[in-house]
Amino acid sequence: QPEQSVSWDAGLDQWLFRDALRFSVTYFETRLEDLILFQGFAGPYFNGGDGITRGIETELEIQVLDHGVLGASYTFLRTRVTDLDEPGSAPTLELHEEFIRRPTHSGRAYAGWHVADAWGAFVDVSIVGSCEDSTFTTFPAVREKNDGYIKTDVSAFWVILPGLRAWARVDNVLDVHYHEVIGYQGPHANALVGLE
């Protein structure tokens, strides 16, 4: 049967100093029931556990003069398996332990300068903490640590004519080696350009 969840959140989003600074903070929580689990590489699939995720998201953004923006955000996440019908039946779930692939700490920092109808340039830095994961290459599957990483993306645009602009973006500009999922290499530095 389908998994079930109940979620709620509460927060504050406030502009200050004549809209020059924005601060937000949000608490969120999700309770999960009848988690769909599987045994082995091909199943069978079954409902067999409950869990909870909760955390806090914060963000601070500052407007610089009329064209610039500086900002940063941070997320603190805790997860926990609260019940398992058959402990050991789903090797990557452990009672009272965290879910895999859910980093406790993550965030980003960004900066940009934008002149309307002229040009703009932006830098975005993503920061992801370490977490528990599994390659699922053994039976039973075992947990292992997936290291965190810091990835930087840059982008820019130029207005060529009214209604036509060129843009360019370089993802992972520092060519950081990282794994969003352990065992799968994240994309190397890559560039995209276009017109719109």
Quick structural gist:
It contains no helices and 13 strands. The chain has strands at 4-16, 21-33, 36-38, 45-47, 49-64, 68-84, 105-115, 119-128, 131-133, 144-146, 149-161, 164-171, 190-195.
Explain this structure.
This protein has strands spanning about 5-15, 20-35, 35-40, 45, 50-65, 70-85, 105-115, 120-130, 130-135, 145, 150-160, 165-170, 190-195. It has a nine-stranded antiparallel beta sheet with strand order 1-2-5-6-7-8-11-12-13, with no helix packed on it. Strands 3-4 form a two-stranded antiparallel ribbon. Strands 9-10 form a two-stranded antiparallel ribbon. The protein is about 0% helix and about 60% strand. It is globular, with a radius of gyration of 21 Å. The protein has no helices and 13 strands. The chain is mostly beta strands.
